[in-house]
Specification:
Length: 250
Amino acid sequence: MAPIVIVGVHPVREALRAGGVREVRVGARADARVQEIVRLAESEGVPVRRVDAQELDRLAGGERHQGVMATLAEAPRRWTLEQVVSVEATPLIVVLDGVEDPHNVGAILRTSDAVGATAVVRQERHAAALGPAAARASAGALAHVRIVDVVNVVRAIETLKSLGVWVVGLDAEGAQPYDRIDFRPPTALVVGAEGEGLRRLVREHCDFIAALPMRGHVSSLNVSVATGVVLYEALRQRMAGELPGRGHSG
């Protein structure tokens, strides 16, 4: 797998703090924020190379780079399902079923990091590349979130269930409101591609299907927004402790 390129002031700063950056490149005109990154890189022993704007534009692949980019020394460590389930007693895992927009993937990574989710599971094919767009949208979270690549989402769900993880799919046609699901036990939240939602086989293998109430004129939310809503409900429940009257039994 090719090294990941990260662009933008905040994502590069976070990548440097996380470690594992091979090189930082900055434009000829470096503002105060970029100069701060240069000092941070030098303090970490990371080489800094000055390049022209055209090279930054080319390497950033159309993303707004703000005059700075970094190349990771290697792709982030890939975890297995067994490893991430064993990280903590009550893991909270996000499973992406065919989410191909890198900005959505980056936003989900950012929220997953914010709520302390254990890992994000993605299919090796039919998934957004973890390139500049996803890295920038993640605001640096790509350097922190555990990522599991799987060949088949349905098999991954079955493996998670065999490891004692409840699997909750998020779908507009779900039978249960999302806030009636108990997210305190080990739980995996499965989200589908925008417009298509969960694939039929994926939906059938989930233990529960939850839905967000929609009372306005639009019929659905952006997948990263919907994922964020449910992840913060999971965090709220886990911080609040016991929730009388709620449970996986619905």
